[in-house]
Specification:
single chain; mainly alpha
Amino acid sequence: MASTSSGRQADARDRDDEGRARNARDRDDDGRARDARDQGDDGRVRDARDRDEEGRARNARPRDGLGRPLPYGSEGVARQPEGVVRTPRETVTEAQDLLDAGRPFHAHEVFEDAWKSGPEEERGLWRGLAQLAVGLTHAARGNVTGGARLLRRGAGAVTEWAASGAGRQRPYEIDLAGLALWARALAEEVERTAAPVDARTRRPRLRG
C-alpha cells in the first residue's frame, strides 16, 4: 500500500498537471502573469480577479473548444458550470456528449465535479477519468509530453482502481479496461507522430 506521503505527492502532481490543462488561465496574451489586484480611483489596492456569481475567483476570459484562453471580448465556448452535483450515470452521459463534440477539456471539468463531490471510494475512478480527458486535451493541443504522460497516468489510475477492493471492472457501465487500452495506444501514437490529434475523431467511448 502506498504511504500517505506518497499519496499526497501524487495528488499534488495530479493537481499540477490538471492545472496546466487550463493553459495559464490567469495570464495575458503576452504570457505575463495577470496581476490579481488593481488600484481604484482612491489609490487603494483592490481585488481585480474575475469572480463567479457566488463570489469565487474564476477567470472569465473566453475559451476555445479545447479550453485555451482567447482575448477578452472574443466569442468563446462556454465553460462547464463549476461544482455541479450529478449522479454517476449523468456524469458519464454528459462527459461522453462533450467528448463526442470534441471538447475533452470540458469533459474533464465534469469528471472533476464527480471527483470532488462523490464518495471517497470513487475518487480514484473519477480522478483517473479526468486525467484521461486532460491527456486528450493536451494531445489535441499538440503537447506531446503532457498528452502522453496524462494519458498513461489516467490509464494507470483507472486500472489500479478497478483492481482495488472498492473498484469494479465496469462501474456505471464504464469500460475501464477498454479505456486503458485506448489511452496507452493514443499515448504511443502522440509520441510517434509528434502531431496534434483530432479530439473528436480520437475520442474514447466511455461505455465501450
